[in-house]
Design brief:
The complex is a heterodimer of chains A (431) and B (312). With 431 residues, chain A is of the alpha/beta class. Helices cover 23% and strands 33% of the residues of chain A. The chains are: A alpha/beta (431), B mainly alpha (312).
Chain lengths: 431, 312
């Protein structure tokens, strides 16, 4: 323990991308000297270390270089520069089961695959039954692999790789194969390898899985290593890099207002640093496009000003700043919280809450104080609509004007933080 | 259950391995030796896959030389009436060497691309795929030898027993030469996919340059007439020809020319009456050149291997 299992040092991998790929000598001759190409850097000066016994995840969008990096560690690709040193026997699960030959039987493929991984037939003999049992293929083991379903194929591939007990296991997006029961079995076995002190390098899109299995994770973006952190933080950084790549909205970049003394009109949840009432300005008030009330800002305020995300069950204030040049009686504020798939997670308005806004006049802010957010993970967007109390007239609305993010540090899965406690009724033997 | 699982023999050592380093040709040979069981399994796979879905199975590999034997015996022995006694036997001796070379080379050349799924998946010495193809060709070679044994029995001929060591040397040289070319071409074939098709064309020409169907004696006579006493060295530039002649000398084992034949100025022996020393020296030089080629081929393979997983 504590030793380094995999060292990645200043690894760069470049590829030549030809505009017209000529894969024959004939074409290459025709096009000699004038085949334009670009040099594409799949990995750019990446360095990190994986400690022995650690489970390390590589995160990144498609084309971020994470699979290239895994191939370099597995030794199937060689970096253009830099060094990779690995300690212990590597078993890669890249493209699961791809090493099988369709015309051979399952049995023959197990031995062939075993010898590719560097094991002798007698070593495979001792684990053969375990492999077959794990893959649940007892009846079909002497059938040609081409008659297998894709699930059977993947199961056999995983069973071989995991049962040879590699000291270092490389996993590429493969825990998502097979039915759910088999997935659970795979994850359970991976956990057993973890408990056994094996090193695992894992590539996965499934944030859930990374959080559940990994000790640390590296985030790659366009071949650059952005961050190495604990999984929750790494997933958040990944989301951030994804946002920067196109779906970022200007509101997100805006700094939340600096904390000020809580104003007397605004109730504050204890222990928070929420902002106070908007400052009074002497300027003449106006709205664009002649609206009677305008939403000037919607902000999600975390309990501390420095926080960049919420933990489950922490409080949140959603603050709506408005401007009303003239006095308007009887308005209602509607709040809608949506998840990333645009499903409404929660919606309400001041009428339903029985707390009508009697009047708006001038500059003000309406805050929805949510004492706890019982969500697990994800990004949520907030829409606010100002209507008259009957709801028939929309004065102004702000869609997706603000977002907040919940990141859990534990390994629960799903959307809602239900937080069960366990009760165990136990009848002793002897009845 | 966990206790019964096998651990690799060297698990406790866990040597730090620089994965990113390009192995030298000698390291590659060492890896091949370490992975010899894999080479065996791949060879078995190659043979199994080839014959799994055929009724005749291994009989197929006998059909090829038999067919050739019939066709060439009719064309050369009967129609063209070349002056080679036991033409069928003569032809078969050379064909044995040629078939080993050509099937080994063409199967070896396409082996990396044909096993793309393996190459992208996990690290192992990739040239073991090429070697396995050549070993599979050697199994065919052994089977095809049965046809020759049958022919020897039918004609009641004896191979030249004193030439057997030279024959073995020739076989070794041929395999090294074939391996060198196949390793280099298999790597090139990943980048230029028509290499294997170009090779088919080249092999056709090469066959006719290797004195399998006609007698080397005629070639030698022409060369000596044109280039003087050392003219035969031109033919020695083709390593396959040297081995083919060695095979013919050993297996076909022509009778010593009679006094009447020697007296005839137009007489051309099917194989020039060279001593064992001539064969040994030619094969030794060819063998050394092949070893140098093999070293170069492995170095080239190491270089081109960098991007196999991406290009394939």
């Amino acid at each position: 323990m504590g030793d380094i299992a995999i060292t990645v040092e200043n690894v760069t991998k470049t590829f030549k991308i030809y505009r017209e790929k000529s894969q024959s000598a004939k074409e290459r001759l025709i096009r000699i000297g004038r085949n334009p190409h670009e040099v594409f850097k799949a990995l750019d000066d990446v360095s990190f270390e994986v400690r022995e016994g650690e489970t390390f995840a590589l995160l990144g969008h498609n084309g971020s270089g994470k699979s290239t990096l895994l191939k370099c560690v597995a030794g199937t690709l060689r970096p253009s520069s830099g060094r990779i040193v690995a300690r212990g026997r590597l078993a890669a699960l890249l493209e699961l089961g791809a090493g099988f030959h369709p015309d051979l039987t399952g049995r023959e493929n197990i031995y062939l695959n075993g010898s590719i991984l560097g094991f002798s037939a007698s070593q495979i003999d001792t684990i053969f039954d375990d492999i077959v049992a794990f893959a649940e293929l007892e009846e079909f083991i002497d059938n040609q692999v081409k008659h297998y379903s894709s699930g059977m194929y993947a199961r056999l591939g995983f069973a071989v790789a995991i049962n040879v007990e590699p000291e270092v296991l490389l996993v590429d997006e493969v825990l998502a194969v097979g039915d759910e029961a088999f997935q659970r079995k795979c994850i359970e076995r991976v956990k057993r390898l973890q408990a056994d002190g094996r090193t695992i390098l894992l590539v996965s899109h499934a944030a859930d899985l990374v959080r559940q299995l990994a000790d640390r994770a590296a985030v790659l973006d366009h071949g650059h290593l952005v961050e190495v952190a604990e999984p929750g933080e790494a997933i958040r950084v990944l989301r951030e890099t994804l946002e920067r790549r196109g779906i970022a909205s200007p509101d997100l970049e805006a700094e939340p207002p600096p904390p000020v003394e809580p104003g007397p009109v605004l109730a504050a949840v204890e222990g928070t640093e929420w902002s106070g009432p908007p400052p009074e300005t002497g300027e003449a008030l106006s709205t664009s496009a002649g609206k009677v009330v305008e939403i000037t800002a919607v902000a999600c305020e975390y309990p501390t000003a420095s926080a960049r995300f919420l933990k489950p069950n922490e409080p949140l204030r959603i603050r709506v700043d408005y401007v009303a040049p003239e006095r308007i009686p009887d308005v209602a504020f509607t709040l809608e919280v949506r998840d990333i798939g645009q499903n409404i997670v929660y919606a309400t308005d001041t009428e339903i809450l029985g707390q009508p806004i009697v009047t708006v006049n001038g500059v003000g802010a309406v805050c929805f104080d949510l004492p706890r957010i019982p969500l697990l993970d994800g990004q949520f967007s907030v829409s606010v609509i100002i209507t008259n109390r009957a709801g028939g007239q929309v004065f102004d609305r702000s869609d997706d004007g603000a977002q907040f993010e919940v990141v859990q540090s534990e390994a629960h899965r799903g959307t809602v933080a239900l937080e069960p406690t366990i009760v165990h009724f136990f009848h002793g033997t002897g009845f | 259950m966990a206790e019964t699982l096998a651990r690799p023999a060297n698990a406790d050592l866990s040597p730090a391995l620089e994965v990113s380093k390009r192995p030298s040709p000698l390291t590659r040979l060492a890896h091949l030796w370490q992975y010899r069981e894999l080479v065996g399994n791949l060879t078995r796979k190659e043979l199994k896959v080839k014959y799994k879905n055929s009724i005749l199975g291994f009989a197929w590999s006998l059909l090829n030389p038999l067919m050739y034997l019939v066709v060439f015996s009719v064309v050369f022995g009967e129609i063209l009436d070349v002056n080679i006694p036991y033409y069928g036997l003569f032809f078969l001796s050379g064909l044995l060497a040629w078939n080993l070379f050509s099937t080994g080379l063409s199967a070896g050349t396409s082996s990396i691309v044909a096993n793309a799924q393996l190459v992208t998946k996990v690290w192992f010495p990739r040239e073991s795929l090429v070697i396995a193809s050549i070993l599979a060709a050697m199994v065919h070679f052994l089977l095809q030898s049965l046809v020759l044994v049958g022919a020897l029995l039918a004609f009641q001929r004896m191979p030249a027993l004193e030439f057997i060591p030279v024959f073995v040397l020739g076989l070794v040289v041929l395999v090294i030469f074939c391996a060198a070319l196949a390793i280099a071409l298999s790597a090139i074939n990943v980048y230029l996919r028509d290499t294997q098709h170009l090779l088919e064309v080249v092999l056709l020409a090469w066959f006719w340059l290797s004195a399998v169907a006609y007698s080397y004696g005629m070639v030698a006579k022409q060369l000596v007439a044109r280039f003087g006493e050392r003219g035969e060295l031109v033919a020695a530039l083709n390593p396959v020809l040297t081995v083919v002649v060695t095979f013919q000398r050993t297996l076909y084992n022509p009778a010593d020319p009679s006094a009447a034949e020697l007296a005839d100025p137009n007489f051309i022996p099917a194989i020039p009456p060279h001593s064992i020393g001539w064969y040994v020296s030619h094969l030794a030089v060819t063998g050394l050149v092949s070893l140098v080629l093999l070293y170069g081929a492995l170095a080239l393979f190491s270089r081109l291997e960098d991007n196999f997983a991406e290009e394939i």
